[in-house]
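Cont'd.
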Amino acid sequence: MGFNTISFGIFFFIVFFLYWIFLRKSILYRNIFLVIVSYIFYGWWDWRFLLLIFISSLTDFVVGYKIGKESNKTKRKLWLLLSITVNIGFLAFFKYYNFFIESMSDLCSFFGSNTDNLRLNIILPVGISFYTFQTLSYTIDIYYKRFEPTRNIFAFIAFVSFFPQLVAGPIERAKKLLPQFLKQITVDYETLRSGLLLMSWGFLKKIVIADRLAIFVNNAYSNIEQLDAITAFVAIIFFAFQLYLDFSAYSDIAIGAARVLGFNLSLNFKRPYMAYSLSDFWKRWHISLSSWFKDYVYIPLGGRKNRVQYICNILIVFSVSGLWHGASWNFVVWGLLNGLFLLLFQGFFKSINRERLLNRILVSVSVFLLWALTLVFFRSQTFNSAFLMLSDLGVSTKDVLYSQGLNKAEFYFTVKVLFAYILFEIMQERYSDLYNWFVSRYFMFRWCVYIFIIAAILFLGSYGTGLDDRNFIYFQF
Amino acid sequence: MKRRKKKSLTGADTKSICFSKPILCILIKSLFIITLFVSVILYLDIKGYFDLNESNNHTKKKWESFYSFTEKNSVDVLLLGNSHLYTGINPKNLSLALGVNAFILASPGTNIADTYFCLKEALARTDPKLVVIETYGIDDFNPFELSKAGVSDQLKSFYARKNFFVKLRSMPYLFTSDNYLYAWSNTLRNHGFIFNNRDQLRKNRVLMTKKGRRQKELYLGRYICFLNGIDDKLIGKYDSLGSPVKGVEYSYSNYSYDYVERIVNLCKRENVELIFLTLPMYERHISDYSVWRDKLSEILDRYPNRWVNMQTKPYYCGFERWSFQNTYKGNQHMTYNGSLLATYKLAGFIRDSLNISLPERDKDSKWHDLFYGSEGYFDNFYPKDNDRNNICICRNKRLRNVVLDGCFLLDIDNKDGNRLIAKIDKRMLKGLKFEDLKLRILLKFEMDGKEQVTRLDLTYDILHKPEKFVIFNSFIKPVHIKEIVDGAIIKR
């Protein structure tokens, strides 16, 4: 069940009610309850993959325990290898098997053999890319003695399967999240309020803005040959915002839901489109994944020991990150492009004096445009359609801007809302204590904002029969 | 106004209930917001601010008419199905042919699951003697995997119904949970009008200020008719491309079996006679109909209920090209003329082949008041003496070889032309083939102040077939008819 469905609303209400009324005092029963409801949540997508997440959790629980107990370095390494094999093995099989077969197919056909019969009809388990990384970080941190293993199996399984962040992150480190399952949590009004407000804000971003942008983008990408320069440009920009708003909305809802249950999840987005360089961008975009790759791939590869190693490692990390997003060469190219841009423009962005407001704006816009350009490969199904979209930037006007699923009124509404959101982010960037300012306002003002958010979702939201863009984008990863 | 002191987050106001009982506080506030918005949405729904175009919302019109009709009248024959039914059977003619109240509860694209729940709601409201289910809605479908158009039709049908408890119970069977709110609220379903249909919002705003008007004309659920039958071009398509509908491609899902069984059991529980009806498409429109028929038989033959299959003989006899919509699309409906033929065939079957006792409402003057002037009324009954628009020219008039039971001139106010009908008792023409006959009369009339006599041939009306009479008719210019001087039945 997606977050933006009635089923989730009812589910969450029941969970909230049972959790706080009956279960908050006992850690054991609370964790058992969270495991049950998380498994129900996950099983709602497809019950067949419950065994998979259970095996992955159990394996890493045992491995973590064994590594923690073992002093022999070789044996510790072997246990870690087991954890990596199981997790990456699951990921490789479910996500990348057919990709490798198809990639091999071209090579094999060159030598006259056929690999089509090796293709399997595999369904990608929802969230596998996220929870495998989460459990892997647990065993790796234990191996490097950054964290002590837990003996509380229910706490561990709850940590792996915690439903707010199970299907699309944030990818939590055990050091941060697991201890929360081992201690008593208390409820306070401020936490509940901020959690619910964050969830509402996430729904607003998703339903009012992101899903509306999706209509335009989906239409444009399915009619690439008919686009003109303006429409293609708008589609590229819209997708950059759609992706950000969709994913950050999910993160907001996940963090808000966790907060309502007394758990603190990590920030996953920090206004990436306000970044002042590409390096800064990657510290603001999908922070949990970027930091995971930095800590578990980039640094073990050697990090920045010398220039050549640095360049290689950056390209490797970004390629792998691209591949993580999808089993397709266009994702790899997307990742590589980002790595290349980071390397190429690093010096340029460093040299700019960011103290001046105009420079700051120009830098942020440049970073955004470079990012948006790479997203053409992210969004397109094939290289061909990606290049077609880019070539459409040179096509003269065909007057097709208002025939991409949004009529004129709705299109301009979308643009205005987008501008309003950008202004809001600028204010957040400038005044980091905006939330505290808000909660200290008069009661009437706050209630007007609450009512406005709900009313906007209900009456201006892009939802309903006939609109299929309701799933969060990152669920497909 | 005194400026309120800024609240410190760390130094919480411990006297506030919110900080001492946070969950209760959150629940109360959430409840308040939910109540507020539910009230607003309910208000907008009741006022119809986000309703669809009323003139096009026949599903809603049909249910409102059903509820309005059943406030003071019972429905004796209830027909349910989809567009095939509401284009294929004329409820007024059916009512008049049988002397009962017939009502058609059919909506576009209705599947058998929706038909079941509509029937359930209807039976909670009225007590028919006979239920007729059209079989086109029995299809290979899954109510949870309908196309967008299918979901939309189902939502409209659900919204138009009024029995809260029946609707509530039907909801999980008809919709996935994602559609629950849309099923109950037009506001949520059509909120997109804010961007893509502002004209409709303006119209609805105007309607909101007006009180609802009850339909004056008798409306028994039917709303659409096609006038033109199949043309030569379409025949050419059948010749070159073959039949668009392939009987071999038809199959039925478990849902089909399940809901037919539920309908049968429901009618059994309610002690209502149930028959199934298949309205035809043009014979060249379907290939391998026998395959389709056999598959449908697998479902229907499980039950003792009768099945009137007008796609096969003997019921198909009489349907010609003019009976069917001029379309090559798979879903071919009947024309107005075709529907009249089908209606009288159905009436004949009900009267002659079913052993049920229907009320004889034609003996009730109130029933006559209700139906008076409706299409088909004068084919079955007689104009009132004080009716100036539909006049009786003669009753029991002896002609050379036949007696006219009655001769009427209808719709005199229509300056484009009037229908002259003559009714002859069927028994007088026993043994004769009606299609081969015509009624020739000598008519005395007045025009431009002058009295004239003219010969007029009235043709046999193959469409209007009341139980006891044979109808001959003709359309004539508006003239003042004085009397029928003479006449006879002759062969064409």
